[in-house]
Amino acid sequence: MKKKLPKLIIILGPTASGKTKLAVALARKFNGEIVSADSRQVYIGMDIGTGKDLKEYGKGEKRIPYHLIDIILPKTEFNVFKFKKKATVAINNITARGKTPLVVGGTGLYISALVDNYQLPLGKPDKKIRQKLKKMKIADKLEALKKLDMMTYEKIDKNNLRRIDRALEVCFNGQKFSSGSKKKPIYNTLQIGLKFPKNVMNKKIDKRVDDRLLEGMIGEIKKLHAQKISWRRMESFGLEYRFISRYLRGKYKNQEMINLLKTAIHQFAKRQMTWFKRDTKIHWIKNKSQAEKLIKKFLKK
RNA sequence: GGUCACGUAGCCAAGUGGUCCAAGGCGGCAGUUUGCAAAACUGUUAUUCGUGGGUUCGACUCCCACCGUGACCU
């Protein structure tokens, strides 16, 4: 006896592929609400640089409700764990209201956490442990990991300090990092992917950078900095914030910054595709009507 | 027209007679990915040093010619 799982539609794709526009149109058609799966759009005050496109959701009665956008202040840390928790709540509420949840975004890890129902190892980021890790040598870290969690030791990138540190953090907390797993899915998901040939993709990205610059992206970042967000923190909010903050500090000339930013986003889009490529369950579509057909069929089942 | 300098991968660039059958960086390509993920990390990318000749046991490295680029001079 298999219980019927709640249905979840996911719209994913690299940056600038038009996910929001498509998702809003689909939400209109299928009585849906949108849950953003984007690690940056959660932040209040970062609109242009994160591409929130809030106008796209419509106004008044026609407005499509969205979730996980503008939910925290820039000083607050966000991560997959929080995402999974909040997204699950949002999705369940939408379903309870008799509406269709549409998860939309380009943060592959977040989407996988939902689709594959990641069981994240316990042990949240711990200041004390991180202090301790800061003082340890890499060789000692690897030695410790070998003792505490052989499985992870064998698998882990030996040069990726960030990953090694997290794994050890979990281990020092008394759990094995390798205990994380994919549990049985809790949603019946339909994943729809948007993609374009690379040269087309890159042109879209370039255009979007130019548009955002005209929309006042630099001003947005100046304003954030005026609100006491350090340059260091600013760099962590994504490519636009990183390159523009460096430009504002005189590290790059204007055109140089624009070129570097565009290239960095091209590379990012490629990384996104590398992530998505692994999931063979994604239906890659060419246009809206293909998406509509897939959803119609999916919702009927 | 003359003088000088330079010409190493898609780009930048080290190397000035023998572990150079050519360092490094960027870009490209491929990939990893379970509490920072627009992050962090990995692999890969020149049978060859502008072209042709010469010197030498041996040349990217020295000599000559040619082509190209730049600067200066007339």
Automatic annotation (TrEMBL):
Q: Where does substrate bind?
A: T15, A16, S17, G18, K19, T20
* Region (Interaction with substrate tRNA), start-end ranges: 38-41
- Cross-referenced Pfam families, in alphabetical order? IPPT
> Which cofactors does this protein require?
Mg(2+)
Give residue numbers for the site Interaction with substrate tRNA: T107, R130
Can you provide one Gene Ontology molecular function annotated for this UniProt record? tRNA dimethylallyltransferase activity
| Chain's gene name | miaA
Known NCBIfam families for this protein?
A: miaA (TIGR00174)
Transferase as a keyword of this entry, yes or no, is yes
What is this enzyme's catalytic activity, as reactions?
adenosine(37) in tRNA + dimethylallyl diphosphate = N(6)-dimethylallyladenosine(37) in tRNA + diphosphate
User: Which EC class, in a word?
Assistant: transferase
Q: Which protein is depicted?
A: tRNA dimethylallyltransferase
Q: Can you name the source organism?
A: Candidatus Kuenenbacteria bacterium CG1_02_38_13
Record's subunit section = Monomer.
The family database entries (PANTHER family) matched by this protein are listed as:
TRNA DIMETHYLALLYLTRANSFERASE
State the SUPFAM superfamilies in the record.
P-loop containing nucleoside triphosphate hydrolases
Q: What keywords appear on the UniProt entry?
A: ATP-binding, Magnesium, Nucleotide-binding, Transferase, tRNA processing
Family, similarity comment: Belongs to the IPP transferase family.
Q: Where does ATP bind?
A: G13, P14, T15, A16, S17, G18, K19, T20
Q: Which InterPro entries match?
A: Dimethylallyltransferase, IPT, P-loop_NTPase
| EC number(s) stated in the UniProt entry for this protein | 2.5.1.75
Listed under GO biological process in this entry are: tRNA modification
What job does the chain carry out? Catalyzes the transfer of a dimethylallyl group onto the adenine at position 37 in tRNAs that read codons beginning with uridine, leading to the formation of N6-(dimethylallyl)adenosine (i(6)A).
